[in-house]
Amino acid sequence: MKFIISRDQLITSVQDVMKAISSRTVIPILTGIKIEAKKHGIILTGSDSDISIESYIPAEQDENVNIEHIEEGSIVLQAKYFPDIVRKLPEKMVEIESDENLKLTIRSGKAEFNLNGQDAEEYPQLPTLQTDESFEMPTDLLKSLTKQTVFAVSTMETRPILTGVHMKLNANTLTFTATDSHRLASREIPVNETNVEFSNIVVPGKSLTELNKILGDTPEPVEISVTNNQILFRTKHLKFMSRLLDGNYPETSRLIPDQSKTVLHVKTKELLNTIDRASLLAKEERNNVVKLTTEGDHLVEITSNSPEVGTVAEEITVQSMEGEELKISFSSKYMIDALKAIEYDDVKIEFTGAMRPFIIRPANEDPILQLILPVRTY
Amino acid sequence: MKFIISRDQLITSVQDVMKAISSRTVIPILTGIKIEAKKHGIILTGSDSDISIESYIPAEQDENVNIEHIEEGSIVLQAKYFPDIVRKLPEKMVEIESDENLKLTIRSGKAEFNLNGQDAEEYPQLPTLQTDESFEMPTDLLKSLTKQTVFAVSTMETRPILTGVHMKLNANTLTFTATDSHRLASREIPVNETNVEFSNIVVPGKSLTELNKILGDTPEPVEISVTNNQILFRTKHLKFMSRLLDGNYPETSRLIPDQSKTVLHVKTKELLNTIDRASLLAKEERNNVVKLTTEGDHLVEITSNSPEVGTVAEEITVQSMEGEELKISFSSKYMIDALKAIEYDDVKIEFTGAMRPFIIRPANEDPILQLILPVRTY
Fold it and tell me: Which ipTM was obtained for this model?
């Protein structure tokens, strides 16, 4: 194997596939990065067997030459050293060459690295997706869909299915839902016309978080294919594959109250900052609790107290308050996460009493829904 | 106590004194920050009993009003919450008020914090320096003197005296020296005419590192006073006091070879980058070793090998090589630290054989000296 490649192109691809590589894998060769040289370009692969990422660098692209003098071949290289080596090479072009003894030579300027490789034949075959069915959506929309839901997955392994994000595609509407049983985040968006439908697909939250780090903020399409146990996200030069979680995702729609007793309209940022301040005094307590008290039609008071440290209180003016007066306590962390996910200036909060879950939505009816269970205070 | 103060002024001062506050102190009240209001301004104090920092905010400065409505008094407040509270206050002005029950109220906009304070009378009296003798130097020069030496202090408590930087003032020349017994860094600079002289002052490396974080990059003077067991650095609005280390600092001048067998002149940055690359393959081994081999008058080869991973070699062109050919192995970490401390484009390295300490100096004879002990390789 041999090729001469632009250092900066190589750096980007290496960083992308590194997201799948873990030093704690049980399959030793998966601590490596697979490099394959083909006539038309270079393919890098990284995998921890849950997530697999392939990054493709075409030899030529938009009339620019990325790679020259390609001799086909493949090798697996220790991923621990390769990214730093590539990043610190002195010149813009890098020559990479391997011999029959699995020695890899990296040359750039006067620097020469000789590294021990492993046989690419021993690298596990990645599962191939047995489906021709796929649907497309803009990459940036997938990213915001993920960002608005994935924070609500459970981090506890007691109910593994809740560590994933539930995906449903029905009548050209894609819905993401995540819940840790104390709160829930969901959003639905229309997708391009497709025959694909599914309803019990659960993608590990970690996979979506890693995918979001790699995808660019671009409206270019990402193509999504789903089988029973795998999901594939494919962009122009990237394939991101994740296993799915086994099991049935709980029915969440009945958790969502369909009527309300108290409705607040408020500026998202103002409420967020006030709750952020109120949460300052109880840093060490997880999910520290704040209290919201309505005070007539246009005022809400946010309070918190931590017996050893002190108390904090702040009034904010709301745009409107309809329905019953209310006192309710909840986790400031959940509320901050939910308000950050809204992404609109104005928010509508619907309560059905101090002991019932409440709902936070953008005032403009964009179908983002955040639900939080209150905390009982005595 | 009561005053209204600019939030941004308060944030800066709080951040400065926080540098002295540790949550692991044995004296509970030292986890707090002392606030004193005087007619002319506010004094904040933090201390971990090794380091004490006082920051002063004058009520008026350059015809700007920083503080208004001062009622004198003092209180000690838990330092854990105060910085975040101040930083997140909604308005530019902050009202701070304490009552006779040691309750402190912080008001800004509609936000109100009520915090439990402690009696300032219980805060330890900081040692006062019994000396009228002091000398001055530009703040930025003190910072660079520190940066060029403090990294070489020992981090091991086996010889506590080596965890400090040795300061000597003699004939209007100030010398800083640090060594961990494997390497040594020193620099001397002229100071303004002064009667002060001392020769066995050892300041904890940690104190100087914290001081460097607080001092601005300004040529304004810093005034330094020294007693038997304390050193005080004073700028316009800041007092930084540190205890000194007990014991005799070793005589280091005899470590420095006064003749040399091989002299290299080389571009600092080029050598630094080459050694940085050569050090990449042995990340986990502390102080990983690289080898330097002269190859005639104008070439030097830097190599390193890590049996399991591979080897790296790079030639660099030197400006000149005089004397005997040489092969020498040393810690790449020490070499990188030393070259970074040089701060000039061209460097002169003087060797006296593969088993003897070698010296790195700027080519322009600025009295910065870095000494490194080689590593024996078999």
Answer: 0.85
Give yes or no for residue B101 having a pLDDT over 70: yes
Q: Which residue in B81, B277, B316 is closest to A281 by CB distance?
A: B81
- Note whether A81 contacts B280, CB cutoff 8 Å: yes
Residue to test with chain A: of B31, B76, B274, B280, most A Cβ within 10 A: B280
Give every CB contact of residue A122 below 8 A, 6+ residues apart in sequence. Answer: A29, A76
Mapped onto helix, strand or coil, the DSSP state of residue B361 is: strand
Give the helix, strand, coil percentages of chain B, each rounded to 5: 20, 45, 35
Find, among B57, B68, B49, the residue nearest to B13 by Cα: B57
The verdict on a CB contact (< 8 Å) between B313 and A112 is yes
Weakest-pLDDT range from B46-55, B114-123, B126-135, B210-219 = B126-135
CB contacts of A104 in chain B (<8 Å) are 310
> What is the distance between the alpha carbons of residues B166 and B176, in angstroms, rounded to a whole number?
6
Each residue's pLDDT tens digit, A273-310: 999 999 998 665 545 899 999 998 899 999 998 888 89
Instruction: Name the residue facing A309 among B116, B283, B312 (closest C-beta).
Output: B116
Query: Is the pLDDT score of A196 beyond 70?
Result: yes
Residue with tokens 């990449």: B280
Q: Do B283 and A81 touch (CB under 8 A)?
A: yes
Asked whether the beta carbons of residue A110 and residue B309 sit closer than 8 angstroms, the reply is no
Which chain A residues have a beta carbon less than 8 Å from that of B314?
109-112
The end-to-end CA distance of chain B, in Å, is 70
Give the integer Cα–Cα distance in Å for B143 and B145. Answer: 5
